Amino acid sequence: MPFKRFVEIGRVAQINYGKEHGRLVVIVDVIDQNRALVDAPDMVRSQVNFKRLSLTDLKVDIKRVPRKKELIKAMEEADVKNKWEKSSWGRKLIVQKRRASLNDFDRFKIMLAKIKRAATVRQELAKLKKSAS
Amino acid sequence: MAPKQRTARKVSRNPELIRGIGKYSRSKMYHKRGLWAIKAKNGGVLPRHDPKPKPQAPSQKPPKFYPADDVKKPLVNKHKPKPTKLRASITPGTVLILLAGRFKGKRVVFLKQLPSGLLLVTGPFKINGVPLRRVNQSYVIGTSTKVDVSGVNVDKFDDKYFAKEAEKKKKKEEGEFFESEKEEKKVLPQEKKDDQKTVDSALLKSIESVLDLKAYIGARFSLKQGMKPHELVF
């Protein structure tokens, strides 16, 4: 039961409440017991309450409060973007976004595809049952 | 050409220092406007134009009858209604979802907006049974699916095409009350059936060129479990 994801300088977190909901940020400094200074390549550095952050597994190697350029360089070296998109959390987010942006026609096509897939699975199952019995 | 060269707008030659106070005094402005030159041209006085002779209005006889009480005349209203503004998402060829009426839930192809503001729409008839029909924009969801309607000519359709035929005046007699119900069965004129065929044949080609589109238009729309209309993207 030990903790694995710690609040530390360089920890990548996701903001889970408020205007910046869903954004990936790097913890750049700790202000006090409740707040962190947080930064991202396309965002102004700002303070955020820890309650609004969800920590991820990713970490970036930076010193306390780096300059924007250094932050961007460190994020490139740690390959945050690709690692995030390959992680299971990141993949789930991508799927959620895709599902939310579906057209009415897309939803119809998906329904047809689901029915088709279920039909082939059931056919195979029936075949297997028959051969086993 | 000469009169057009002068600027149409009259700009003041007296720039405003503060609201209500101009830069130049009355005498300076008199000089700036060149009133002295106009007077000099006209022999010391400003030119005077006699009023143009007005065309003789026909002489009106005094009315024979005055109403006892003053009747108030309603104000003049020259407002002409415009056809309803078409939503930006609805363009010719858009697939619409009908929300009310006999064909509720049906997905239908939009053809054009008629002068009355209603939308001209067709199934196509062979696919989902919706004929050439008028539909109000408010009872429609515009999806982002578009069908190619370039091959369709809809110029001949307008509101008069869809007007109800004037019913013949019947004299209702007691004995014929029940019989008259059987007589009238409105048969769709062959002309309208042909119009439907011509419009639909062009549409069917462009629909069948897209995969699954025919089945999509043939199916009805319904809300399923977990679908939140305010979160759905149409």
From TrEMBL, chain B:
<feature type="region of interest" description="Disordered">
    <location>
        <begin position="41"/>
        <end position="86"/>
    </location>
</feature>
<keyword id="KW-0689">Ribosomal protein</keyword>
<feature type="region of interest" description="Disordered">
    <location>
        <begin position="172"/>
        <end position="199"/>
    </location>
</feature>
<keyword id="KW-0687">Ribonucleoprotein</keyword>
<protein>
    <recommendedName>
        <fullName>Large ribosomal subunit protein uL6 N-terminal domain-containing protein</fullName>
    </recommendedName>
</protein>
<dbReference type="GO" id="GO:0003723">
    <property type="term" value="F:RNA binding"/>
</dbReference>
<dbReference type="Pfam" id="PF03868">
    <property type="entry name" value="Ribosomal_L6e_N"/>
</dbReference>
<dbReference type="GO" id="GO:0000027">
    <property type="term" value="P:ribosomal large subunit assembly"/>
</dbReference>
<feature type="domain" description="Large ribosomal subunit protein uL6 N-terminal">
    <location>
        <begin position="3"/>
        <end position="62"/>
    </location>
</feature>
<dbReference type="GO" id="GO:0022625">
    <property type="term" value="C:cytosolic large ribosomal subunit"/>
</dbReference>
<feature type="compositionally biased region" description="Pro residues">
    <location>
        <begin position="54"/>
        <end position="65"/>
    </location>
</feature>
<dbReference type="InterPro" id="IPR008991">
    <property type="entry name" value="Translation_prot_SH3-like_sf"/>
</dbReference>
<dbReference type="InterPro" id="IPR005568">
    <property type="entry name" value="Ribosomal_uL6_N"/>
</dbReference>
<comment type="similarity">
    <text>Belongs to the eukaryotic ribosomal protein eL6 family.</text>
</comment>
<dbReference type="GO" id="GO:0003735">
    <property type="term" value="F:structural constituent of ribosome"/>
</dbReference>
<dbReference type="GO" id="GO:0002181">
    <property type="term" value="P:cytoplasmic translation"/>
</dbReference>
<dbReference type="Pfam" id="PF01159">
    <property type="entry name" value="Ribosomal_L6e"/>
</dbReference>
<dbReference type="InterPro" id="IPR000915">
    <property type="entry name" value="60S_ribosomal_eL6"/>
</dbReference>
<feature type="compositionally biased region" description="Basic residues">
    <location>
        <begin position="75"/>
        <end position="85"/>
    </location>
</feature>
<dbReference type="InterPro" id="IPR041997">
    <property type="entry name" value="Ribosomal_eL6_KOW"/>
</dbReference>
<dbReference type="InterPro" id="IPR014722">
    <property type="entry name" value="Rib_uL2_dom2"/>
</dbReference>
<feature type="compositionally biased region" description="Basic and acidic residues">
    <location>
        <begin position="172"/>
        <end position="198"/>
    </location>
</feature>
